[in-house]
Design a protein that fits this description.
With 186 residues, the chain is mostly helical. It has helices at 3-28, 80-85, 93-106, 121-137, 157-182; strands at residues 30-31, 34-35, 62-66, 71-75, 87-90, 144-147. 48% of the residues lie in helices and 12% in strands.
């Protein structure tokens, strides 16, 4: 086995292991052992905005690629970086228009009510999202929204440990093969 193939095997194993670990961060709702800040102010709201498939699919957008010297993780979602690193977002006219469109599309209608006139459970969840969208649409253009960091990809001691474990496994396996080649009588 060439050194190039040896390195490629290690990088491919690192890719698989870290892709799984980074995906598990969404299950943990934490960056390994560092919990994410609470997402929703409404305690009745269910689920995680980081995982909502129809609401963005951040979790499913993560891709890993291997080049000659590294493994690179990316997302096709333009908001991935702000969630991973935290920061401020400036409200724009386009954002306001988007959220007004969401309000119009998601506003609970008569068919989302029981015979007694109460909202169905699905409509109640939708209503929470409509309230969020309405609040966003009512923000002033130019105002700032502080986005807390909810890291899901990046460097951490757990990443170093996973990489070390993979490298050691490969080195030990190849050392055993070299030992057999050096001493064929065994």
């Amino acid at each position: 086995m060439s050194l190039k193939d040896f390195k490629k095997d290690i990088l491919n194993d690192v890719k698989v292991e870290l892709a799984d670990e980074f995906d598990q961060n969404f299950e943990r709702k934490a960056f390994f052992t560092k919990p994410w800040k609470r997402e929703r102010k409404n305690p009745a709201a269910k689920g995680s905005l980081m995982q909502v498939r129809g609401g963005g699919g951040l979790r499913g957008s993560i891709r890993a690629t291997v080049d000659s010297d590294s493994v690179r993780f990316t997302s096709s979602k333009p908001y991935a970086r702000i969630h991973n690193e935290g920061g401020e977002i400036t409200v724009t006219k386009a954002m306001k228009a988007h959220f007004w469109g969401e309000v119009a599309k998601l506003q609970p209608r008569a068919e989302n009510r029981t015979k007694s006139g109460k909202l169905t459970k699905a409509a109640e969840r939708m209503s929470d999202h409509v309230q969020f969208c309405k609040a966003m649409a009512l923000k002033k253009v130019g105002s700032k929204i502080k986005m807390p960091q909810r890291q899901f990809i990046g460097h951490a001691p757990e990443v170093d440990n996973a990489v070390k474990k993979i490298v050691n496994k490969h080195v030990e396996a190849h050392a055993a093969q070299v030992a057999k080649l050096m001493n064929p009588r065994r």
